[in-house]
Here is the input.
Amino acid sequence: MEPVNAACLAIVPTYDEAENIRPIVARILEAVPTAHVLVMDDASPDGTGRIADEIAATDDRVSVVHRTAKEGLGAAYVAGFRWGLDRGYRVLVEIDADGSHPADRLPVMLEALDGPERPGLVIGSRWVRGGSVVDWPRRRLFLSRAGNLYSRLALRIPVRDATAGFRVYRADVLAAMPLERVASRGYFFQVDMTLRTLDAGHTVVEVPIEFREREAGVSKMSGSIVQEAMLNVTIWGLQRAWRRLRGLPLRDE
Here is the structure.
């Protein structure tokens, strides 16, 4: 069988990541030389898009999409998924531009995707055995752990890091999703995608990673995004509990 990474596209959303974009693209391609990289730039005022164009001009494995406004992480990934699906990629990767996700774990994640469980999604997880977080303050560690525990219990899902942003999907899983209906902001985008994958009957596998604080620049995560995520988890958890009691499908679509 052809290796699963032979048609692998790593999607890297960017907004003001001029200091980080060259290193992360280099690390992805070093880890998986057969992969392609798609930079989805949200009109970065710091010149990230121009730097990405320079990289693409010297390496045909790299492509750049210039979006006209800052529309958020989820919207960038959905656009990237569509771009990859239209071009026939079989594996689609989510990875942050800021260096917090260890690109050298990609081969392990790709191997897991092609493993005996045949999962629809592999998550690079901070909160499974062997996973860790480096350089985070205690408050942020607590919020992430508590948020993921709450999501797992409220939604009754067997995933310890549902908010994780380092992911590998099978293209057929994404192709079957109504991507236009996916909640498109921050943390909740990742929770929504995890839930949709499970609801479609696919397995989710978590691979331990060491997550590090971003290497340069400013985090885009805000308190309002976290609050929105937890509110949506609560609403969805109640809706799903009611549907279970009534014997109804867990979602309409």
About this structure: Confidence is low (pLDDT under 50) at residues 1-5.
